[in-house]
Specification:
With 388 residues, this protein is α/β, with parallel strands linked by helices. The chain has a domain at 10-102 and 331-381: Periplasmic binding protein-like II (D-Maltodextrin-Binding Protein, domain 2), CATH 3.40.190. The protein has helices spanning 45-58, 72-81, 117-120, 128-135, 145-150, 171-183, 209-219, 232-237, 267-278, 283-286, 337-351, 371-381; strands at residues 10-15, 18-24, 34-40, 63-70, 86-89, 99-113, 125-126, 162-166, 205-207, 223-228, 241-242, 244-246, 262-263, 323-331. The strands form 3 sheets. Strands 3, 4, 5, 6, 8, 9, 10, 11 and 14 form a 9-stranded mixed beta sheet that branches. It has a 3-stranded mixed beta sheet with strand order 7-12-13. A two-stranded antiparallel sheet has the order 1-2. β3 (34-40), α1 (45-58) and β4 form a beta-alpha-beta unit. α4 (128-135) packs across α6 (171-183) and α11 runs antiparallel to α12 (371-381). The chain is elongated and about 65 Å long. The relative contact order is 0.20.
Length: 388
């Protein structure tokens, strides 16, 4: 689509309980530059860095996007306060402070480790039990029985394990702690953006943002941590390893020794898990608050219990288990409704044209939204007050 003053595209989408047709794009124009400010999730930040210049160049030359990181917690708080146009979060906000949650893409997460070139070239099998025990300080060396049993043929060193955590309020922490919460009975941290802030694991190391976590892992032999998929190139450039992760069956009573129950990261495996989870979406009860972890939950996120340990949300095996919707948060009653029109216009473009894999999402290894979620996004955006 060439440079244009406005968008004149009508999107056919599938919505609640079947098909419905939802409105045309805005045709708001401007003769002065409108700067859209965005902050929050560092997992989503690289995609915003791609979307922004392309939107200005190909859609509306009078609109610019100014993205920044800071973590999902910052995105949530600033969007609620109205000090930012768009907050970015890996976790659903469910706020009563006048913001609407709008998913814009589907992401995933890697568990990354530093064990030297030989082992880093192997995708070690790790499950929620092993990772849970590492972060609960009960599994402390790489050659422990649990890890060795799940990795036949790999000679693991006696190197001490150093867990790396996010120091900022982080949606990546929410995603990772959710995986441990659903798969390990002994998990005590719950699942939140601040899971490790008040009482971090013993001998753990903090990192700010995904880049900070990668730097800590790279600098410490034996370190392990969680990293958003949009930083895969950074992980590869540092020659670090990442794990094949245990599905539901790997967290069963068998102890996770069956290597077939571990799934390596791939776009195909992420897509399959996302589709499985979104099939469990109960919009009437939960809105767009759905985790894609381990195939999602038929009961909805408000009824998950902690420490599922083999009775995880989806029965049986799942594809790649750490998958997530990426949310943007927008004030529904903004102080400047005229400016908010440009914010809504940008987000409508992001959830449609911006979900093009070959042009945009593929650069950060994201998966496009399903038509159902695109439709529900359009409905959510209709709640935002804008000037006509």
């Amino acid at each position: 689509m060439g440079a244009a003053i406005g968008i004149a595209v009508v999107l056919l989408v599938v919505g609640i309980g079947g098909g419905y047709f939802l409105g045309a794009y805005l045709t708001k124009t401007s003769t002065s530059t409108q700067d859209i400010t965005e902050t929050g999730s560092t997992l989503l930040e690289p995609l915003m860095d791609i979307w922004g210049p392309n939107y200005t160049a190909h859609v509306n030359s009078h609109v610019t996007l100014s993205p920044s990181g800071g973590g999902s917690g910052q995105g949530q708080s600033e969007s609620e306060a109205g000090t930012i146009d768009i907050g970015a979060s890996d976790a659903y906000t469910a706020s009563n402070l006048g913001v609407v949650d709008v998913p814009v893409a589907i992401s995933s997460q890697l568990v990354v480790y530093n064990l030297g070139s030989t082992i880093d070239a192997v995708h070690l099998n790790l499950n929620a039990t092993m990772l849970g025990e590492i972060y609960e300080d009960t599994l402390t060396t790489w050659n422990s029985g649990l890890i060795t049993a799940a990795n036949p043929g790999v000679t693991l060193p006696s190197t001490s394990i150093t867990p790396v955590v996010r120091s900022d309020s982080s949606g990546d922490t929410y995603i990772f702690s959710s995986y441990c919460d659903f798969g390990y009975k002994g998990w005590t941290y719950g699942n939140s953006t601040k899971a490790f802030q008040s009482s971090p694991p013993k001998d753990s190391q903090p990192g700010t943002g995904n880049v900070g976590v990668i730097n800590e892992i790279n600098n410490i032999s034996g370190a392990v941590g969680y990293v958003g998929i949009s930083y895969l190139k950074d992980v590869e450039n540092d020659h670090l390893g990442w794990a094949a992760l245990g599905d539901n069956l790997a967290n069963s009573a068998s102890g996770g020794i069956n290597t077939k129950d571990y799934v390596n990261w791939s776009i195909a495996n992420v897509t399959t898990d996302a589709n499985l989870a979104l099939g469990n979406l109960n919009y009437a009860a939960d809105g767009l608050a759905i985790s894609l972890i381990m195939g999602g939950s038929p009961a909805g996120p408000t009824t998950w219990s902690t420490g599922a340990g083999g009775t995880n949300p989806a029965a049986g095996a799942t594809p790649y288990p750490i998958v997530n919707l990426e949310y943007t948060l927008v004030k529904t009653s903004p102080s400047n409704p005229s400016h908010q029109a440009y914010v809504v216009q940008f987000l409508q473009w992001a959830i449609s044209y911006g979900n093009n894999v070959s042009k945009y999402l593929g650069q950060v290894n994201f998966v496009p939204l399903t038509p159902q979620i695109q439709g529900l996004d359009q409905e959510a955006l209709s709640e935002v007050q804008i000037a006509s």
